[in-house]
Design a protein that fits this description.
CATH superfamily of the largest domain in chain B: Dipeptide-binding Protein, Domain 3
Radius of gyration of chain A: 24 Å
Helix content of chain B: 25-40%
Distance between the termini of chain B: 37 Å
Helix content of chain A: over 70%
Strand content of chain A: under 5%
CATH architecture of the largest domain in chain B: Roll
Number of strands of chain A: 0
Structural class of chain A: mainly alpha
Number of helices of chain A: 13
Order of helices and strands of chain A: HHHHHHHHHHHHH
Oligomer: heterodimer
Largest interface: A-B, 59 and 58 residues
Largest sheet of chain A: none
Number of domains of chain B: 3
Radius of gyration of chain B: 26 Å
Distance between the termini of chain A: 6 Å
Largest sheet of chain B: 12 strands, mixed
Number of helices of chain B: 18
Number of strands of chain B: 24
Strand content of chain B: 15-25%
Chain lengths: 323, 549
């Protein structure tokens, strides 16, 4: 186990390093000068441009720039954003909580509701409920999240005024408000963006879970368990479901990073101050330091999610040995 | 029993959502205003708003915190000193053509209670005129030779040469900073200081807090020497997405929205809300098709098509600019005469722009040798088709929409346009490097027409299309120096530019703001939208019992 973990960590490190090198090189190969926006309002003189190049290390050879990035990253210093003029680590720290909150809520909703509904569908195969949920899940899966977000914001936020149409907190709620009130306020703001992202992801989880569960329910050991008189709920959840969980686990590993990067439109529609829009903006403005900082985080998430998934496999399936 | 569980679960969840969620909505204080904007103010501190921080978001918040020496009058005239109104300076006088004297209002106080003195003004100008600290400001203030204090309240500003906008340069570009808090700090120390996180100003509002990516809170300065503001608290909420901004407003979570961007259907949605009113304001923006007069990427050679003035004029005459403006902005924009944005005072009494005349355009092109010889619908000369590439940024919905219509209108006269929708850094790189035929530009101008030299003088820093007419340079210099009547000189500049057709000037929009009707005495300033917020009132009869979700 220990050797396996060390080997996987080494693999993760190598994957991360390759991703960083590729990102660094590809970003600089893309057309567009990162300093051009600084002169958008007032053209910069050649001396000013040169001073800015020196300030952001853009006058250095590519290899030297990468070395500076690596040395800084090792110290937790991801450089200074060209667009914001502030340390990248500070910007990421500011946006990370909102991303974790939204991503966490979506994962929770996705894998509780999605799994539960998927299992219900499988055990009631070909029933009215199954057919109805299949139709709904296909519709949910086919729905573009930005469109759904716009519709929900307009309908629930503007037309019915049931929930906030956008934002993460009500500014009128002062900093001296108690934790309960502030928590409830954030939750209210969370509902619509989380629902928008969840509807699409739940649909996918349901489909995967239903298929896996149907396969598991048809296996001989389930028939054996039933023949032995094991209670039906135990047959379903302990015997069948545990084995039907693996495809969904893989999905979890894939969803984790997607929730950071894939929520750009939803963050935008709901003015949610997360990392997705920050990273997208960095690409749009060629803000190299910010792009490297956010990419490092996202790549680390991908690698960590993959590692976690492998560990979960071993934990849930005694046939898998971490060696 | 089992079958009913999903229904029960969903029913309970929905009921909880509907009943519980709205309970926590905050009752709104009518004396509070929530303004929605697209960008967060990150450094609303004079002399620090450079580079990417030189943006409208910082400027508008800084204008609530820091007072300038004087403000614009209604005409927005930048020449002389007659059309300005007192702010931090109670009065001013001119000693000679090179010296201005300002007397500060003795009632003025910083938010920490310390009086504002001439030393603060001197300290600020020392920072602003230092190119190592504020290169943009140092360039704008280059004609100021010294700023000195005489006693506690008097400031003397000397210039290196006489010119028409001396007063404007002193009062507009920079607002004084508190020297008692900042003296001795290096630029880096200041940038990292507590002052940048919690600025201490002297304006009608004081800084309360900032929640990054979400909002900024300001509170009325109860001891403000020009009168306590009626609107007690100001929240500036951030939403980069235009739809999210409109949703904030229509859901009642915001009271004001600045610059509602096209499509015009957005304006109709807001007009339909009974509690809101639209307030159009002259904008600093002018949009135009900029013609490269040199070969793309080779400034030594003339452009094979656009170096010819006849072709450029023919393009202008081929376009129905009024129809273009109407389709994108409705009634909230005009076709400009020359590169004069609506905010510029020189647009008053300027001549009317030319109307469309495709027949005249055809004659000009034909005389220049452009004829459709192969019958493919595109004019050609010496075997070369009249094909031009039009670059525009992918972030501008206005330019994207108009570019399509320009393409179609020019197709009818035999000019083929290839649209190049580019990412902003790529578009900017091609623009500044001269790698374009036609660039769909949008300039945001200062209230001073002297900024036109940047793009339209031979040596202008933003003259990326290499337009050069010595007469225009001479006229501009005369207008800036104030020789003769500056308005006449500027109109002559515009006339000459229109005649040379270095660009087709397409649109000069108004910025349309939406404001809740409970606010009275609403004035929105073109140079900084919320500048007069301190004079707004709250009309009790129109107070909403509860707004928001």
């Amino acid at each position: 186990m220990k050797r396996w973990l060390l080997r996987r960590l080494a693999q993760a490190g190598i994957t991360l390093a390759i991703a960083m090198v590729l990102l660094f090189v590809l970003m600089r190969l893309a057309p567009g000068d990162p300093l051009s926006r600084l002169g958008e309002n007032r053209p910069l003189s050649p001396a000013e441009t040169e001073a800015l190049r020196v300030r952001y290390g853009l006058d250095q050879p590519l290899l030297a720039q990468f070395g500076v990035f690596l040395r800084g990253a090792a110290r937790g210093d991801l450089g200074t954003s060209i667009e914001y003029g502030r340390p990248v680590s500070a910007l990421v720290r500011e946006r990370l909580p909102a991303t974790i909150l939204l991503g966490g809520a979506v994962l929770l909703l996705n894998f509780t509701i999605g799994i539960w509904l998927g299992v219900r569908q499988a055990v009631r195969r070909d029933s009215v409920l199954d057919r109805w949920l299949t139709t709904v899940s296909l519709a949910g899966y086919a729905m573009p999240s930005f469109w759904l977000g716009l519709v929900l914001a307009w309908l629930v936020g503007v037309k019915w005024r049931l929930l906030p149409a956008a934002g993460m907190q009500d500014p009128l709620l002062g900093p001296d408000a108690d934790w309960g009130a502030r928590g409830a306020d954030v939750l209210r703001h969370l509902v619509l963006p989380a629902l928008t992202l969840s509807i699409v992801s739940i649909a996918a989880t349901m489909r995967y879970q239903r298929t896996a569960m149907l396969e598991a329910l048809a296996l001989p050991y389930v028939t054996t368990a039933r023949a032995k008189g094991v209670r039906e709920s135990l047959v379903r959840w302990r015997h069948a479901w545990r084995n039907a969980l693996f495809p969904v686990l893989t999905l979890f590993g894939l969803w984790l990073p997607v929730l950071v990067t894939g929520s750009v439109f939803v963050e935008s529609v709901f003015a949610w101050p997360g990392l997705g829009s920050l990273a997208a903006g960095a690409v749009g403005y060629r803000d190299y330091p910010l792009l490297m900082g956010t990419s490092l985080l996202i790549s680390a998430l991908v690698v960590a999610a993959s590692l976690l998934t492998d560990l979960a496999y071993a934990f849930l399936d005694p046939r898998v040995r971490l060696s | 029993m089992t079958r009913s569980r999903p229904r029960t679960f969903l029913g309970t969840a929905l009921t909880a959502l509907v009943l519980v969620c709205p309970l926590g909505a905050q009752a709104r204080d009518p004396n509070t205003i929530v303004i929605v904007t697209g960008q967060q103010a990150t450094v609303p501190v004079p002399t620090l708003m450079e580079g990417a921080d030189n943006n409208l978001a910082n400027l508008e918040v800084a204008d609530q915190l820091f007072l300038r020496l004087a403000g614009f009058g209604p005409s927005l005239t930048t020449v002389g000193e007659r059309d300005f109104v007192p702010r931090l300076a109670r009065s001013w006088s001119r000693q000679d053509s090179l010296t201005l004297v300002f007397d500060l209002d003795p009632r003025a106080r910083w938010h920490d209670g310390v009086p504002v003195t001439g030393a603060d003004v001197v300290f600020t100008f020392e920072r602003a005129r230092n190119p190592a600290i504020a290169p943009r400001l140092a360039d704008l203030l280059r004609h100021i030779s010294s700023v000195t204090a005489e006693g506690e309240r008097r400031v003397v500003v000397r210039f290196s040469q006489p010119y028409a906008e001396q007063f404007y340069d002193v009062v507009y570009h920079v607002a004084p900073l508190p020297s008692h808090l900042l003296m001795g700090l290096t630029q880096d120390e200041l940038k990292r200081s507590e002052f940048v996180r919690n600025p201490v100003g002297n304006g009608p509002y004081r800084w309360v807090r900032s929640v990054p990516g979400q909002f900024i809170e300001l509170a009325a300065n109860k001891r403000f020497f020009l009168g306590r503001p009626a609107v007690a608290r100001v929240f500036v909420r951030i939403a980069a997405d235009p739809d999210a901004r409109i949703n904030f407003l229509l859901s009642g979570e915001a009271d004001a929205l600045e610059n509602i961007v096209p499509p015009i259907a957005n304006l109709a949605r807001i007009e339909a809300a009974r509690n809101l009113r639209l307030v159009p304001v002259p904008s600093p923006t002018v949009g135009y098709l900029l013609f490269n007069q040199r070969a793309p990427g080779d400034p030594e050679r003339p452009h094979p098509i656009l170096a010819d003035r006849s072709v450029r004029r023919a393009i202008t005459l081929s376009l129905d600019r009024q129809a273009l403006v109407q389709s994108v902005f409705g009634t909230y924009a005009q076709v400009p005469f020359g590169p004069a944005a609506p905010i510029l005072w020189i647009r008053h009494n300027a001549p009317a722009p030319l109307g469309p005349d495709p027949a005249a355009a055809g004659r000009l092109l034909s005389a220049a040798g452009w004829v459709d010889r192969d019958g493919d619908g595109v004019l050609d000369r010496d075997g070369r088709p009249l094909l031009l590439r039009l670059n525009f940024p992918n972030t501008s919905a206005v330019r994207g929409q108009m570019a399509l219509q320009v393409q179609e209108q020019l197709r009818r006269v035999g000019i083929a346009i290839e649209l190049q929708r580019l990412e902003v850094p790529v578009w900017l790189e091609r623009r500044s490097g001269g790698h374009f035929d036609i660039d769909f530009s949008s300039a945001s101008q200062d209230p001073s027409p002297s900024g036109l030299t940047q793009s339209w003088s031979c040596s202008g820093g933003d003259n990326v299309a290499h337009y050069c007419n010595a007469r225009v340079d001479t006229l501009m210099e005369r207008a800036i120096r104030g020789t003769g009547n500056p308005a006449d000189s500027w109109h002559e500049v515009l006339r000459q530019i229109e005649d040379d057709a270095p660009a087709t000037f397409l649109y000069a929009p108004s910025y349309v703001h939406a404001i809740d009707r409970r606010f009275g005495h609403v004035t929105i300033r073109p140079e900084s939208s919320w500048l007069e917020l301190r004079q707004w009132t709250v009309e009790r009869a129109r107070e909403r019992p509860r707004s928001g979700y």
